[in-house]
Amino acid sequence: MISRNQELKAIAINLRKSVLESLTTAGSGHLGGSLGMADIFAVLYFSIMNHRPAEPSWPDRDRLILSNGHIAPILYASLAHSGYFAVEELKTLRKLGSRLQGHPGRNHGLPGLELSAGSLGQGVGVSIGMALAAKHLNKTCQIYCILGDGEMQEGSVWEAAMSAGHYKLNNLTWIIDRNRLQIDGDTEEVMSLEPLQSKLRSFNWEVQLMGGHDINDILFKLKGRSNSQKPVAFIAQTIMGKGVPEIENNPAWHGKVPTTSQLEGFLASLY
Ligand SMILES: [Mg+2]
Fold first, then answer.
1. Per-residue confidence (pLDDT) for residue 201, from 0 to 100
2. What's the DSSP call for residue 88?
3. pTM of the entire predicted model
């Protein structure tokens, strides 16, 4: 019998497959971060989030804000495999007139997309506003925001963090893609973030580490989130490019895509 965790792992591999295929067809885009977040997206969209793909505007839905909008391919794959639109449409990624723009754009009418994103440090602020609005309206929905570790070098991230702590937003969860890499290399060499946990705690957040590829741990941590009355930040220890050994931990793959001839080998090596 297949366990729920094995099912989620299989879904994550399918999402990675779609990411590889859609980016290869597009011929450009951001691969490393998209592959690295596949396990977390699988757990969010297929286990944790309360959402209705057939009713994308359902007022009580949980919201997912992708603040690091450049990893759009993993969001699009998650939405398509959840049933918001046909998986076939993933092939239109980055095409002129497509609903699947290189950075997500709300005005293209893609169902399930909550925010136009790509300007780093912006989505996190919107997540604060959404969490405040939900409280004001007495909604019980949860607001999840995904952000990159390199993105945390933006000053606006810390202004948003300060607001969330001040307003005790216990309906807000940030998941930080802590792959320790950004486009120019190691985050600690470009502009060090550490000690990240104590910085966030000093802004009145609850902070926990999360194994970014450990389905058990992702599930356990996200299910336990409701125990805290503060905004919660999970620092997800991820590997950029996870799932394709040739790509893993190599910042050169931040914004590069496979050639058609590389694709077959990468798909075969997926794990
Ligand atoms: Mg990073």
1. 98
2. G
3. 0.97
